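Repro:
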Amino acid sequence: MCLLRGLPLPGDREITPELLPRPPRLLLLVNPYGGRGLAWQWCKNHVLPMISEAGLSFNLIQTERQNHARELVQGLSLSEWDGIVTVSGDGLLFEVLNGLLDRPDWEEAVKTPVGILPCGSGNALAGAVNQHGGFEPALGVDLLLNCSLLLCRGGSRPLDLLSVTLASGSRCFSFLSVAWGFVSDVDIQSERFRALGSARFTLGTVLGLATLHTYRGRLSYLPAAVEPASPTPAHGLPRAKSELTLAPAPAPAPPVAHSPLHRSVSDLPLPLPQPALASPGSPEPLPILSLNGGGPELVGDWGGAGDAPLSPDPLLPSPPSSPKALLSPITEGVPEMPASSGLPPPTPDALGAISPGGPPDHLLPPLGTPLPPGWVTLEGDFVLMLAISPSHLGADLVAAPHARFDDGLLHLCWVRGGISRAALLRLFLAMERGSHFSLGCPQLGYAAARAFRLEPLTPRGVLTVDGEQVEYGPLQAQVHPGLGTLLTGPPGRAGQEP
């Protein structure tokens, strides 16, 4: 670029660095304890060299505690950043998105592009990004390198977000999934094996199969107007029409209210042993790390049989010292928890996990009121229920192979009671290839929906949103199409997503 200095321009102006486009500015949030505690090492060895070579400008902050990322983004001057990228598992991005929706200016804040570089034990969204980019399925460092390359190449897509209303009446926002039953049991109970990295889920699945439970509940959903193409055209998705009932109409829902939160980054104490990482040309370093992220090149386009069927067997209550903190509401007032939840009311120490902002849920009546006409209801014994937005449940688990980041759909999957352990294991093995719907399992069901309501009728159990445990009890959710923006890189095939 120095060869251009001094060359005349029309109007006798010279080419100077100030006239050249600036490199994109990224805020990197790293959870140093992600996965097996290797996140910071992987970030230094793989991520930072690649984005520096690509000419991206960045600042980097290591998070110190739960909800630290949420607090940071609530006070950021977002106009200084072209994207916020988490270097961790799915949990850190959950904090970022809910922090953006906590802000008084959430309508603009949630448009901030977000990205994920997988360094955790749960890397579901990264698996979907990897597939979107046209790469073969990958794990570990290979998945991290693929996603880092896609980030450097630039490109984004709208991201559907789910607004999840919990039993207390408060809301949080999900980019991934809502789970009940086997999936959430494995997710939470495998926390004690976090040192194993992604292998914790394999071990948790084996233990979960050995102590498999069924849960009685009621699942209602608003079907999508247009069903997506089946992932296996030769084999229709199972659905027992004889089980379906229509729900009556409700009273109109009251408007959603929220209290704005005000906080600046300068208010946050950030004592860290490392200096603040920032590349030249980035905004004033936030009080933490600085590495040379400058470079000569600008990034382009960056903007069954085998055992007996199961009978209902409620899960024992989770211990109070569960490794994952229970997410609880921060909206105006905290109603009493339902007596059937089996959990104590939320405590002040757990506040700060639920988003009071965001768009209203125009498809959902208040919890506890009847549902409108056109909803479908299923009631009975379930082994699991999963509502998922993107394609992947894990880096190597393709739960909804036909899903897209911005298809505007909830993909509901459920497994009825009566399935054998061997058949359930076959489903999850087939899910690694996204071929589980082709097995013809009679207990497996699927529906594309715009909204759903789940009412557990078993007094104890585990519910998760994006892998984070939430209060147990009735909940409901609706999809908000394209509410967020995801840094995905370009699609793997020209003019067509993989």
